[in-house]
Specification:
This protein is α/β, with parallel strands linked by helices. The chain contains 19 helices and 18 strands. β4, α4 (88-96) and β5 (101-104) form a beta-alpha-beta unit. The protein binds adenosine-5'-triphosphate and magnesium ion.
């Protein structure tokens, strides 16, 4: 629980401060000390702490100001105030303004730990609730398709607009981007939802049988056609027909499909009776139909019939903000009810990967990692598939999200710097010379930075 938690501890009594900081350090917290309010404010300027513990009575800038500044700057921060004789009223005021708790001086270390643990636990529950709430928010999904990124948000808007119409839709996107889930979501958000969604993968059926599959056949229409059968067009009457991999059809069949789309009528194989249907068609492909048209392998008129409303799903590598929510989504799917998460390193690899197999590949990676984690709650790099185990060095810069309401650039850069410095020291077992080498900076610069950022 304490791991990685950074505490700013402010007190002008140096003996008490040092001792408490040391004991918190023993419990695994990273503690930075400040002996007065001014220093505390400076430190708050530089780093995002998880917790600020401050004496209320300080010479100069007092503890109430420190807490107030901290809360204003970092709304998620935990403020704990320490009161001495005659400052209880101030403590109550601090709590009214958002401090988590207070503790009276003189205190036992265990009392402080109790207050701290309680506040951390509360914060954890709060962020968990926020997460659960965000899961319920429709904004980030459309019929079970998850999407936080801007391109997906735009896609949802388009889907909402077109779902209600009867227009034919052509869904394009690389393998695993979610073409089928999009088609289903359109159906379930359309007035046709009470009728069937019928899917047919055109590339999975031999050409000779595909026509019968689409339009049905009468008894004896071809060898093996023992009885009459409905085709998918008929099955989808009043509903939606999803034609997957539509780019693989023969020229003859392309023509028959064109007629069915134009007239909404066709004949079963071996029959002369015309059947009329009311079907909405959604087609999908991961081949470049426009190129096939120019090469003469796909009918131009059919292309325009299908492509009335083009819906293009961007590859996952072009919407990396979707990776963390998708990871959470699949962790919950494959380890329901368990508080699973990815280590920082594992998440870094996920963010840096190119994902040629898109969401399906990510889904498989998480399923595999959950299986390999054997009851551990943290998935680490070795649990990931081999192709994810080496992240390119430029990874860090390529996935920094720009949050909707902006960010505090100096604080953000400081936290990145602090993080990288800490990692360089971990890598070199605390050897500052080698850490400086790894960071391509002078040792003196490193020492300066460490001083500015607080002790390592
Ligand atoms: N945005 C998303 N949110 C949640 N799950 C998704 C999303 N996109 C894809 N998936 C999941 O990824 C998997 C692949 O999706 P789907 O089968 O729709 O891809 P596809 O584009 O049809 O791929 P292919 O071209 O290989 O047929 C499915 O298990 C689907 O549930
Ligand atoms: Mg598919």
């Amino acid at each position: 629980m304490a791991g990685g938690t950074q505490i700013l501890f402010v007190d002008d009594e140096s003996a008490l401060r040092t001792l408490t900081a040391e004991r918190l350090g023993d419990r695994g917290f990273e503690v930075i000390q400040a002996e007065n309010g001014e220093t505390a404010l400076q430190l708050l300027e530089q780093c995002a702490f998880d917790v600020v513990i401050t004496d209320l009575r300080l010479p100069g800038v007092d503890g109430a100001r420190v807490i107030e500044t901290a809360l204003e700057r970092y709304p998620g921060i935990i403020g704990i105030v320490v009161t001495g004789y005659g400052t209880v009223k101030d403590a109550v005021d601090a709590i009214k303004r958002g401090a988590a708790d207070f503790i009276a001086k003189p205190f036992q270390f265990d009392e402080l730990m109790h207050v701290l643990d309680k506040a951390l636990e509360q914060r954890r529950l709060k962020s968990e609730n926020a997460y659960l709430r965000s899961q319920l928010e429709d904004r980030y999904q459309f019929g079970g398709i998850l999407g936080h990124s801007r391109p997906m948000q735009k896609l949802f808007q388009l889907l909402e607009t077109v779902a209600g119409s009867n227009s034919t839709i052509l869904v394009t996107g690389e393998t695993g981007t979610g073409k089928e889930v999009v088609a289903r979501a359109i159906h379930h958000n359309s007035p046709r939802r009470g009728y069937r969604f019928v899917a047919l993968n055109c590339s999975a059926i031999p050409e000779t049988l595909l026509e019968a599959e689409l339009f049905g056949h009468v008894r004896g229409a071809f060898t093996g056609a023992v009885g009459a059968r409905q085709g998918r067009f008929e099955q989808a009457h009043k509903g939606t027909l999803f034609l997957d991999e539509v780019g693989t059809m023969s020229a003859a069949l392309q023509m028959k499909l064109l007629r069915a789309l134009q007239e909404r009528e066709f004949e079963r194989v071996g029959d002369s009776q015309t059947i009329k249907v009311d079907v909405r068609v959604i087609a999908a492909t991961n081949s470049d139909l426009a190129k096939m048209v120019s090469e003469g392998t796909f009918r131009e008129d059919l292309y325009y019939r299908l492509n009335v409303i083009p819906v293009e799903i961007p590859p996952l590598r072009e919407r990396r903000d979707d990776i963390p929510p998708l990871v959470r989504h699949f962790l919950e799917r494959f380890a329901p009810g368990t508080p699973m998460h990815l280590s920082q390193g594992a998440m870094r690899s996920m963010m840096a990967h190119q994902w040629p197999g898109n969401v399906r590949q990510l889904e498989n990676a998480i399923e595999r990692a959950v299986a390999l984690s054997a009851g551990r709650h943290e998935i680490d790099v070795p649990d990931l598939p081999p192709e994810l185990q080496t992240a390119p060095p430029s990874a860090v810069t390529s996935f920094v999200d720009f949050p909707e309401n902006g960010l505090d650039l100096p604080a953000y850069l400081t936290s990145v710097e602090r993080h990288l410095i800490q990692r360089s020291l971990e890598r070199t077992n605390g050897n500052r010379n080698r850490a400086a080498e790894l960071l391509r900076i002078k040792r003196t610069t490193l020492v300066e930075k460490l001083k500015r950022l607080g002790p390592d």
